[in-house]
Amino acid sequence: MTNRIAAKTFMVLKKQQLASGDDGTGAGGVWDSVSIGPVSLSGRSRTSSATGETELAPRAVRVLRRTHPGPGDRVVSVPRFLLRHRVVVEPHLGDSAYGKRFGPARSDVPALVAETVRQVRAPDGRQTTSTAQVIVEPGLVCPVGSRLTPPTGRTTTAISVAHHTARGLPIPACTEVMCE
Question: 3-class SS at 82?
């Protein structure tokens, strides 16, 4: 039943595109005729506002603006669609007479987890082995010593935390947590 409805919806949208002259490429209304097989664009129906201006499809413009800000623009975070895993983070609050203290667990934190063995430098300067790299959105409260539970279910401890921000550069901001 759902497949039939989806097929009918697709056919209606396709008919609307064909009736309006739009082929879904974003070139509708720019060229008199567009064909794909050995490419023929023919005459332009409208021109660019500036000489030598490159025209992009509307979706391409939105993606470029979101991922490549201009100088002085706000810091852009890692796109959420790249953060496919979910982790649980318990921030380290310090040590007490009864051992380490942790804050309330924050579950379902979007992250990108790479469980690979690497050598990293611990806060005290010694070299240690990291078994997981976790990339999360900037602003996550996760000091060194925090407990993390990646999708595999094993509980691990944060060895080092790096906040990557590069205002004005086309590099998304993120927080990188290396775990033992």
Answer: helix
Three-class DSSP category at 150 = coil
CB atoms closer than 10 angstroms to residue 171: 15
pLDDT tens, per residue, the chain with 180 residues: 555 665 566 565 566 566 555 555 555 555 555 555 555 555 555 544 444 445 556 666 566 556 555 555 555 778 888 889 999 999 999 888 898 999 999 989 999 999 888 888 888 888 888 889 999 988 888 899 999 999 989 999 999 998 888 776 667 888 899 998
User: Which of 164, 6, 150, 154 minimizes the C-alpha distance to 14?
Assistant: 6
Kindly state the tokens that stand for 12: 């209606």
- Based on the number of CB atoms within 10 Å of its own CB, is 172 exposed (0-12), middle (13-18) or buried (19 or more)? buried
CATH number of 80-179: 2.40.10
Distance of CA 122 to the CA centre of its chain: 28
> Cβ atoms within 10 A of the Cβ of 78, count?
21
From residue 140, alpha-carbon distances to 31, 60, 113, 136, 167 in Å are: 48, 30, 15, 7, 18
Task: Give the type of residue at 141.
Answer: V
What are the domain boundaries of the chain?
A: 2-46+53-67, 80-179
